[in-house]
Amino acid sequence: MLPIRTLWNVQSFITVLVGLTAVTGDKILSLDGLNSLQRAFVDSCTHGLIGLLTWLVVALPSKHPLISKIYEVFLCGFLSSLIDFDHFIAAKSFNLKDAVGLNSRPFLHCTSVPLTICVVVIVLSHVLGWSTLVRIPWLVLAALLSHHIRDGTRRGLWMWPFGSTPAIPYSLYVGATMALPHIIGLVLPPTQHGIEYHILPAVV
């Protein structure tokens, strides 16, 4: 584990990278001349990189094995990017035009339901003593919220069954995205084990 001062400096640097990634990705998407495939690729990469960096900030202070940390970081990035696959599921088509042309948001873009599920799993993991699984719902929550907050600049957060919040102001989005890993780091309890890469596929 890194010395506290060094750890703080590294976390601060990565936090700045989170903000820069968010702004840079959006700037690229605002450029003229990008076709639908290029836009989808940039958007997906931006979501994934933000998710990856978000969990990197969370994972750095833990005493878990390095392999567990690496696995968690890349898994969070992958999940954050994978969320947009629900566009294709909702469209019942692998055609990109159909996927991005939906009239409503697909199911994985609902914030309230997965948030509730994650909270329930977190509570159960404590009540039932599932120490190995404590971090999984937090990781999923980091991937979901980093994705939803970014999408929320356009249509707000979808809080079914209550409707959607107003669109998130851009400065608030960047600030919330940078603050997210630190909030999770504050409330995530210390656990005996990190996510073990050889058992996670069986769990998920």
Could you give a quick summary of the protein structure above?
The chain has helices spanning 4-29, 36-59, 66-82, 86-91, 96-100, 112-127, 135-155, 170-187, 200-203. The chain is built from 9 helices and no strands.
Topology as H/E string?
A: HHHHHHHHH
* Assembly state of the chains shown: single chain
Helix and strand content put the structural class at mainly alpha
| Helical amount | 55-70%
Mean pLDDT: 87
Number of helices: 9
Number of domains: 1
Subcellular location: Membrane
GO cellular component, one term: membrane
Main location: membrane
InterPro entries: TMEM267
Task: Describe the structure in your own words.
- The protein starts with a helix and ends with a helix.
- 67% of the residues lie in helices and 0% in strands.
- α3 runs parallel beside α7 (135-155) and α6 runs antiparallel to α7 (135-155).
- The protein has helices spanning 4-29, 36-59, 66-82, 86-91, 96-100, 112-127, 135-155, 170-187, 200-203.
- With 204 residues, the chain is mostly helical.
- The protein is globular.
- The protein has one domain.
- The protein contains nine helices and no strands.
